[in-house]
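Data card: per-record layout.
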Amino acid sequence: MSLSSYLLLFAGGVLGGVINVMAGGAGFMTFPLFMAAGLSEMEANAANFVALLPANAVGTFVFKREIGEVRRHLITRIGLALLGGALGSWLLVWAGEASFHKAIPWLLLFATLSFATGPTVKRYLETHTSFDAARWLWLSFILEFVVYVYGGYFGLGMGIILLAIHSIFSHMSVHHANALRNVTILMMTFVSIAILSHSGLIRWLPSLAMMAGAMLGGYGMSKLARLVPAGTVRLGILFWSVVLTGFAFWRYS
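The structure for this 253-residue chain is written out next.
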C-alpha cells in the first residue's frame, strides 16, 4: 500500500473521529475509504472494528459514573455482547466473501434506515413512558443479542438500534443508555477483533493508520467539531449512506 493511501486513511480517521463526536455514523465513511485504499470488502469491514474502537473506549470512560448506575443487568448484557459478537464474527468468517457481497446492500439498507429513524423513534418513546418495561426485559435481552450478532458480522448502525431498544424497554436516561451502549459495544468489538485477527482478515497497518486519525479527531478536534451543528453533519452522513446503499445494490445485486 502506498504512502498516499495511508495518508488518506489517516485523514479519513481524523474526520471520522470528529463525526463520531458530533453525530455518530463514521462507519459509513470509513468502510468505503478502506476499500478505496485497496482492501477487500471483508477486510474493510474487519478494519472498521479496529479503526473505530477508540470511539467506544472514550464513551465508556466519559460515562463511567452512569455505567455504575446501570450495573444491575450489566454482567448479563456484557455476556450477551461477547457471545453475540463472537457468533457474528464467526458467521462472517465461515460464510465467506461471496455471502458477504450478497449481504452488503441489505446490511447497508438496514443500517441507513436505523440511522435515519433513530432520533424520531427516540423522541416518540420519550413521550410514551407508560410502557411497563420490566415485564418485557427478556425480550429486550433477546433483541440486544440479535443486534450484537449483527454487530459482530457488520456493525454499521448498531449503536442507534441499541439506543432504540433501551428506550423501549427501560426508563433510563439517554446518558445511561449511551453508557450501556458504549461498554457493551466495546466488549463486543474486542472479541470480534480477536476472531477476525485469528482468521487473518485484519490488515493491521491500514487499520491502525485509520485508528490514529480517529483518536486525533475524537480527542484533539472535539472543540472544533462543535462549531458545526450536529444536525448538519447528520444530514450529510445520511445523504452519503443513501448514496452508498444505492451503489451497493447496483454493484452487488
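Known properties of this structure: The chain has one domain: 3-252. The first helix runs from residue 3 to 22.

See the next section for split statistics.
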